[in-house]
Structures are given as structure tokens and as C-alpha cells.
Design goal:
The protein is an alpha/beta fold. It folds into two domains: 1-34; 35-157, 3-Layer(aba) Sandwich (Rossmann fold), CATH 3.40.50. The protein has six helices and seven strands; from the N terminus they run αβαβαβββαβαβα. The strands form two sheets. The protein has a five-stranded parallel sheet with strand order 2-1-3-6-7, with helices on both faces. Helix 3 packs parallel to helix 4 (100-110). The longest helix is centred in the N-terminal third of the chain and has 30 residues, at 2-31.
């Protein structure tokens, strides 16, 4: 019985800390009028990967990101043309309707006459070295990609991103 009340007290402290963190984040957003400033596009033909990477980015960087995810090259290029430019594009190398090269090229063309320089992460489980050199991403990640590797990579490419 005593152990159970200690666990309950520990849980209450844990929840209180998370409530306080959430209140601080809300305070910053409201009183300092911080707005999401980093626009990120995640492109992968595997729906589970596209959605999970998008969710991960939102969780890792909640105060500074607007994340879109697309599962086809055509949808990604359409999104870049209409909503871009993006600060960061994370794309798979091989997809049924094209490849990461087309997505990266579209992202770079979209920001050509702006102050934004789109950073790019190319990911693949099977891309060759020559193919990667030809595409010229800012960073290449070999699949599978750990959460820590994704976080470090994003911080490396987009230094101003707010972490929690």
C-alpha cells in the first residue's frame, strides 16, 4: 500500500512538471508572439514513414515547426509550388513516381529568388554513393534512421530551430 502511494505521488509530480512545461510554452507563444518559423516538408512513399517522421519533428521541435508530409513526388512538388519555400525538405531517394532528386530540385528552384535557402536531407536504404553525389543533398541519412540521428541532423541543418 505504501509503495502504491509513492508511485501515485511520483506520477503527480511528473504530470505537474509536464503541465508547467506546457504552460511555459503557451506563455512564450502568447506573450512573445512566437510563431512557428521553420517550415519542413517530409516526403516518403511509405505512408507510415512520412507520418511518423512528421509526428517526430512536431514532438521534438513543438515551438518552431510547421510540418507537411507527402507520399508522392507529384504531391510534394505541388506543395512546394503552392506553399513553399520550405526551410527543410526531408525526402526519400526512391519512390514509384520519381525520386528525391526531383523533390530537391523543385525545393531549390522555389527558393531561388528568396532569402530562404532550403536545406535538404536525402534518406534511403539502398542509394549508391554516385547517386547521392549527383543529387547533392545537404545531408544523407541511411535508413533505418534513429530518432536521435534525425534530431541531431535537423539541428545541424537548421540551427535556429527551437528545441524542448
Amino acid at each position: 500500500m505504501a509503495g502504491n502511494s509513492k508511485q501515485q505521488a511520483g506520477l503527480e509530480v511528473f504530470l505537474d512538471l509536464h503541465r508547467r512545461r506546457d504552460c511555459c510554452n503557451l506563455f512564450l507563444l502568447r506573450h512573445h508572439q512566437m510563431k512557428p518559423t521553420i517550415n519542413i516538408l517530409v516526403v516518403d512513399d511509405d505512408v507510415a514513414i512520412a507520418k511518423s517522421f512528421s509526428r517526430l519533428v512536431r514532438i521534438l521541435f513543438p515551438l518552431s515547426t510547421i510540418v507537411e508530409s507527402k507520399t508522392s513526388v507529384l504531391d510534394a512538388i505541388t506543395e512546394i509550388a503552392s506553399a513553399g519555400p520550405f526551410d527543410l525538405v526531408i525526402t526519400d531517394c526512391h519512390m514509384p513516381d520519381g525520386g528525391g532528386a526531383a523533390v530537391i530540385t523543385a525545393a531549390r528552384l522555389r527558393c531561388a529568388n528568396t532569402h530562404i535557402k532550403t536545406k535538404t536531407i536525402l534518406m534511403s536504404g539502398e542509394a549508391g554513393e554516385e547517386e547521392i553525389k549527383k543529387i547533392e543533398p545537404d545531408l544523407f541519412l541511411q535508413k533505418p534512421i534513429s530518432i536521435d540521428k534525425l534530431k541531431v541532423s535537423i539541428v545541424q541543418l537548421v540551427p535556429g530551430i527551437v528545441r524542448h
